[in-house]
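User: Please fill in residues for this 184-position structure.
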């Protein structure tokens, strides 16, 4: 699966195929077809891997007992770590987020709805407890928080290659511009 993820990150969802994966894995194309009978099966398996990675990350960073700002900051910090340590997953995620083709877009939209709901519930709990306020409602804030990933990836891939902590600090400031303690 790792070879498939690497090839999809390199070649793209629409172009990656069995032959490139076989070459990277140093196996025959027939062997890859044994695991993924069709191109659709291959795409489905890779997107499932990316989907699970992103959903697991959200589930791990939004515990019910943590305040909203801390949870959001942990989430974005974990995304930055993933972008540095497993950039292939992030590259596929970003491409998927802009692939509005009918064969992949509905699935991405459903995954994003789950992620936004979980983030939004944490933010709403922060609103309800008066821990935070915002000009945005909880769902809008969740969507803005998710936009932070795009900002982080742009920063990480700049020619000057900022350190992880610089990216995390920027995202924390971004969060505090969206979600703030009441009266600030």
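Assistant: Residues filled in for all 184 positions:
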């Amino acid at each position: 699966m790792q070879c498939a993820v690497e090839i999809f990150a390199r070649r793209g969802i629409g172009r990656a195929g069995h032959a490139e994966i076989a070459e990277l894995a140093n196996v025959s194309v027939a062997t890859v077809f044994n695991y993924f009978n069709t191109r659709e099966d291959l795409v489905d398996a890779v997107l499932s891997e990316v989907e699970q990675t992103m959903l697991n990350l959200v589930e791990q960073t939004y515990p019910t007992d943590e305040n909203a700002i801390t949870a959001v900051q942990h989430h974005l910090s974990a995304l930055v770590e993933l972008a540095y340590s497993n950039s292939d997953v992030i590259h596929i995620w970003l491409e998927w987020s802009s692939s509005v083709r009918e064969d992949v877009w509905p699935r991405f939209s459903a995954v994003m709805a789950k992620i936004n709901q979980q983030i939004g519930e944490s933010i709403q709990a922060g609103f309800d407890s008066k821990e935070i306020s915002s000009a945005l409602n909880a769902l809008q804030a969740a969507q803005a928080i998710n936009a932070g990933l795009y900002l982080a990836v742009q920063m990480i891939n700049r020619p000057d290659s900022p350190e992880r902590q610089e990216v995390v600090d920027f995202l924390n400031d971004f969060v505090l511009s969206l979600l703030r303690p009441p009266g600030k």
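For context: Residues 46-178 form a domain with the Tetracycline Repressor; domain 2 fold (CATH 1.10.357.10).
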